[in-house]
Amino acid sequence: MNMTSNKQGNSIVIHLSGRFDAGVVPQFKSWFLSILESGEQYYVMNLAEVDYLDSGGLGCLVASLRRVRDIDGDIRVAALSDKVRKVFELTRMHRVFDIYDDSNAAANSFN
Amino acid sequence: MAKLTFHIEASLDTLPKVCELACGFAEEAYQKVTGCQPEKDNTFISAVELAVGEACTNAIRHRQADGQEPEMVYLEFSLSGDTWLAEIRDHNQAFDFLAVPEPDFAALPESGYGIYLIRSLMDEVWMERQGDWNVLHLAKKIVS
């Protein structure tokens, strides 16, 4: 999975692409921890280019959200494909994360 | 339609290949049953891909939790009438798949969604012990 980030307004937008599965969990966790060290509170997960999300990837998003909430922040997700949205819905994560059609809308929601 | 049987090393690095093979067989089965090419993100193909991926992840993780060297996970895909079938075999300790509870969604756990997803996506899921083997069976009817 490829991971990049940029600052947009009050938030950090994280762009993920490829498979977000159990095999990439250690890589993502360590990368996200390094980003958290910046002290930023607000994050957007842009999943537009994620073509597969499993319970491992989902668990990573939940773990990340819990960490960010510990510092009174939030993570909002954007641009879910139908396939990825289905995983959110089955696991009721669509009630946990605020979901936006695209990353700009998600980033603007923090302004 | 011929069965597809193969085995993989019990390593999470093999998941993309497993999913690719599962999708390939599922596409062929879908075409045979419906007479149509599956569209992108077809619900049936996506369900098969995720359920097989989760089943393999589970088998691989239990292997690793045992602290043993990676071994193999054996897979078989077949079509019976209009129903897609899979068998996933591992050599891990006996595991009571049906005893695993649903996640406590209100507590927002960081893990434990895999088996719940498999059950949600498939029409039938059952596990049996054959000698030293756990055999997980998945079944899903193909509808256009």
Architecture overview:
The complex is a heterodimer of chains A (111) and B (144). Chain A has helices spanning 25-36, 55-70, 82-90, 103-108; strands at 2-8, 11-20, 42-53, 74-78, 98-100. By secondary structure, chain A is of the alpha/beta class. Chain A starts with a strand and ends with a helix. Classes of the chains: A alpha/beta (111), B alpha+beta (144).
Helix fraction of chain B by DSSP (H/I, runs of at least 4): 25-40%
Mean pLDDT of chain B: 92
Summarize the amount of helix of chain A as a percent range.
25-40%
Secondary-structure-derived class of chain A: alpha/beta
How far apart are the termini of chain A? 29 Å
Strand order, sheet with most strands of chain A:
1-2-3-4-5
SSE order of chain B, one letter for each helix or strand: EHHEEHEE
Low-confidence spans of chain B: none
What's the helix count of chain B? Answer: 3
Total beta strand runs of chain A: 5
**Beta-strand percentage of chain B?**
25-35%
Global Rg of chain A: 12 Å
Shape of chain B: globular
Basic shape of chain A: globular
Distance between the termini of chain B: 18 Å
Major interchain interface with per-chain residue totals: A-B, 23 and 27 residues
Class based on secondary structure composition and strand pairing of chain B: alpha+beta
Largest sheet of chain B: 5 strands, antiparallel
Radius of gyration of chain B, whole Å: 15 Å
Task: Quickly describe the structure.
The complex is a heterodimer of chains A (111) and B (144). Chain A is an alpha/beta fold and 111 residues long.
